[in-house]
Structure formats: structure tokens, C-alpha cells
């Protein structure tokens, strides 16, 4: 338990009982050595202050909407016209607010906001599901970008107590929704950084989130500090790794004191805004009752995508405002439009996946614009690959690492700009094209002062190498 109770309340624990129960939790399995085996006392909180007291952090946040499964370029941001029926965009195209630029027909709201986007049409990941290179970089030694950020920034924001890196799944906004699956590699991998730097994954309505809420009178601050000291003394014999365990106890304690639990509560949002984000109206029962009577293996995740995507983006925006620097949003393999036993076809995917994406992302952009967050948050939308320009015999599109859709919004990205182009069939970049390291360079420059980061002391070698590799590398713009 991490829930602090008022000792004067009618159902509160006695102080002695709380010390016994709370001591076991705060110093034990939840925040103890078992969860953070790779950390030592000098790395528990990263490098927030920076060398010479100058922080390497820019103060901006990145929200990475990971379109896992691989979105089709033909039905999203790079449709081609005048091709054969098997290569033409399913459902046709629509004009955008950028003259001469078209999107797939299921993106009408984003088409109207295209003049606020950076649209990259020559991006190639060179991988499929297993690589996950846009989010788990070879350049960072197989560590996810969120883990890298936590290693530099520290695991918790010192001002708000919020974890600096998070991974949001459908379960983060609904206790009855699915959580992450370990398939084709972990997008929250930590490489050699240590498991303590894995992104924090909240589960809405569950005991973790509920127990992050503090119920203790503010005037008892001194007593709370004394309580933390008592917990530390009571479990000193478990401090096999020196101060590391104490650090995580203190970190958990600070998370509670600073009201982290409230940041996850979407009921604090304006109901009209939540309605604008809400993607639940896109749940189409007809998609889940095929004539054969057989369901697709990924149907729970297709439902979860439509059910939660909008709320996940509201939560991501709230996390960024509250001090989280890197947030990944993922609803699993819903973009995997193979039209096979596991996955739906492109025509079905337009209704089940692309239309909710259009609704939620456009709501996010409008929300950020109205809040003046357009220069403070970078939204990145891409998957681990694109999809075959040619439809298969079942009306699906198969894996295609040679070209992948990519759009960016905010944090100083040029508005209304189309970067690069693909060839006539949308199969590969026209020219050299951009790679995941170019995207990594853009993300690094958004999150960090690269000059300051280069002179930081105490950073792991894999981060130092990644900084050196991307320092002079062109970004995606």
C-alpha cells in the first residue's frame, strides 16, 4: 500500500500498524531491490541538475503515438492516384489544407489541420515488428527512447513527483481494458541501462493508481517525513545496495506527497473536451460479427483502440503538462491490416482504426493549440514500418519496411510542410530518404540541450555514443 491515511479518521490504521504495513510495501517488492536490481545509489535519480548546475533538459515533452502494426501509407498521409485498382488507396483520397496535398479519405479532420503538421514522405524504418526501431533504437543499445530520457532526466520529476517517462496502454484509462503484451520485442526495453529506467505503466482504477492518492492533512508534513525515516530505519537490514533502496522509498514517498494520483484522474477535465476526444462512438459492432462467426485474434485490441485512444491522448497531454518528458501511447497491433486469421482488411481498418485515429489526433492538436502548448509538446505519429502498396488477395496489405508514414506536430516543427517524397507507387523513398536515426536526432533536439548533454558527466556510454552519433545528423526536417 502507498495510501497514507489520517490517523484521526474513523477507519484509519494506527500509526504502529501503518509503519508495519507501509514499511513492507515502500521498502519491499514494489519499490525495493527486486524491481530495480540494476541501479546503484549514484544512478537512482539520473542527472536532472546537469553538470555545473545547468540542466540538459529543454523543458519540452514528446508524446510518441506508436502506430504499432505498421500503418498503410496509401490510406493515410501519402496516397497515390492514377494507379491500378490493387494499388490505389482504398476509399480514395481527400484534399488537405495544404494546396496539392492529399490524405486518405478516412482522415478528414487531420486533412483540415494539415497546415499545422509536418508530413514526412520519405521515411524508412528498414524493419518489421521485431525491430521497433522508431521507439527502440539500435543507436541507444536497444534501449527505448523513454528509458534513455529517464536515465538523463531522472526517474521522477523533482517538481511534481511524476515519472519522467510513461507508457500508456488501454488499461491506463480503463481497468477492464487490455494491457501490454510481450510480442516481437519490447518497445519499453532498457538495454544495458537497467530495468529501473523502464517507462512507468499506469493501470487506471487498479491498486497502483488508487494507492498513489494521499489522504493526510497537509499540516502533518513533519510527521510524514518522520514516517519515512521510521520506514527506512525499520528496513535498514534490507539495504543490500546501499542508498539505492532508500532513494526509491523516498521517490515513492514524494510521488504521493505531490499528488501524482490526481494527474491520472480524467474526471478533472471539462466534459465537453472529453466528449471531443472520445473515440468510443467509433466502435462498430458489425466489424466483430463476421459471416463466418469467427473472430480475429486481435479483435480485443481493435475494440480497445476505438474504446480508449482518445482518452489515452487526453491522459498523455495531462502527463506532459504535469512534468512527464516522454510518453508513449500504444494500443497494440491494430494497424496490422493483413486480412488474415489475426487481422482485419484495409476496408475494415479504415473504420476500426484510421477513423478513430483521425478523430483523436485532431482533437489533441486542437486542444494543444487552445492551451498554448504547440511549442511545448512534440507529437510523433508513426509505426515500426509501412504496408505493401499492393493489396493482397484478401484485401489486406502486408509488411513493408521500405517506407513508413510519419507525421509530427508541435515543439517548433515547421507547419504545413511536406518533407521528401516517395516514388510513383509509394513503395520507397524517391532518393536517399530518412532513417530512424534522423527521427532520433529530432527527438533528442526537442528534449535536450545537445551541447549541454555532450558535456554531462556520469552518463552511460551507450547514451554518450547516441548523442555523438546524432549531434550533427540531420533531423527529419
UniProtKB/TrEMBL annotation:
Spell out the Pfam families in the cross-references.
Answer: DUF1501
Note the coiled coil stretches, chain numbering: none
Output the InterPro entries linked to this UniProt entry: DUF1501 (IPR010869), TAT_signal (IPR006311)
Instruction: Give the superkingdom in one word.
Output: Bacteria
Give the protein name, as stated in the record: DUF1501 domain-containing protein
Q: What is the lineage of its organism?
A: Bacteria, Pseudomonadati, Planctomycetota, Phycisphaerae, Tepidisphaerales
